[in-house]
Write a structure and sequence with these properties.
There is one protein chain. By secondary structure, the protein is an alpha+beta fold. It has 13 helices and nine strands. The strands form three sheets. It has a five-stranded antiparallel sheet. The longest helix has 23 residues. The protein starts with a strand and ends in a 6-residue tail after the last helix.
Length: 296
């Protein structure tokens, strides 16, 4: 159940020093985009050269904060206060029974990795993360995105375009093998995941549609050689079509626009590559008309 907060009473309860620091953070634009989490709200807050992620919410009927600056519980830090004031101004909804990030249950494997991270010095952790980013493009993209350093550039698009072009020519030589088709497909699936970690753009959506058509054509070879393949066509189709749906949603396309794009895809393909059902919640009034439509 959503709970209404007495904002004035909250302001009056803030210690002067904390309130002054929170006001500075707000004036400097230090509070990033709000996110709902565990029935409360969190945001990245930049304080001089440091960045924190405070969370605020109502726990056991008490407005509570949890910040990685080290301050938790009823005594809110300036980062949590600035986040709370931003949330109040934005009309954010608070649950009456929220769960702070640190209280959420985690798997034993996750807990083990958290314990390992806590044993590292900041320098060790920094070197480890930076080194892994150099070796793994997906991790590097996610890292830059979380740090707010990933702009709508063309780097992800360029890599994915190359993967699509390579896939489109994989069967043009006289010596290609089914394994070449499988390799090209897995490359497409890996690259589309990296592409979707970048900001959504219409150009990315257009290119993913081209990739779907290319893969649909290649999947025919896998279907013909099903007795020797190690990859099911849907193993590649699902991430590609899932990326297409994801981009349609992130770009806020209307149901009419999505239906038009799907119809064009269906016309260009010959196999069951596109599962129209996964678009049902985005198609609204078009969903009934397209239900049961044969995929690409």
């Amino acid at each position: 159940m959503a709970v209404r907060i007495d904002v004035e009473a909250f302001r009056d309860s803030i210690p002067t020093a904390v309130g002054e620091t929170a006001a500075r953070l707000l004036t400097d634009g230090g509070v990033g985009e709000l996110e709902s989490a565990g029935g409360g709200v969190q945001a990245l807050v930049r304080d001089h050269d440091a960045t924190f992620q405070p969370w605020v919410g109502i726990v056991d009927r008490i407005f509570t904060g949890d910040c990685d600056c080290g301050t938790t519980g009823d005594d809110l830090c300036a980062h949590a206060v600035a986040t709370a004031l931003t949330a109040f101004h934005a009309g954010a909804t608070f649950s009456g029974a929220a769960t702070p990030p640190g209280a959420a249950p985690v798997t034993p494997e996750h807990a083990r990795y958290l314990q390992a991270v806590q044993r590292l010095s900041p320098r060790q952790l920094t070197d480890l993360v930076a080194g892994h980013a150099i070796r793994d493009r997906l991790f590097a993209t996610l890292l830059l995105s979380e740090a707010g350093m990933l702009n709508a550039d063309t780097s992800g698009l360029a890599h994915f375009r190359t993967a699509v072009e390579d896939a489109s020519t994989v069967t043009t030589s006289s010596r290609w093998q089914i394994s070449d088709v499988e390799t090209a497909g897995h490359h497409l699936a890996a690259e589309v995941e990296i592409l979707c970690a970048h900001p959504a753009t219409p150009a990315a959506l257009d290119l993913v549609e081209e990739a779907i058509v290319v893969w649909d054509d290649l999947s025919g070879h896998l279907r013909d050689a099903y007795h020797i393949t190690r990859t099911e066509p849907q193993e590649i189709a699902e991430p590609l079509v899932g990326a297409h749906r994801n981009l349609c949603e992130r770009l806020d396309l209307t149901s009419d626009e999505i239906a038009q794009r799907l119809n064009r895809l269906l016309e260009r393909c010959h196999y069951d590559t596109v599962d129209v059902d996964i678009y049902a919640d985005l198609l609204t009034e078009h969903a009934v008309g397209m239900a049961g439509t044969a995929g690409c």
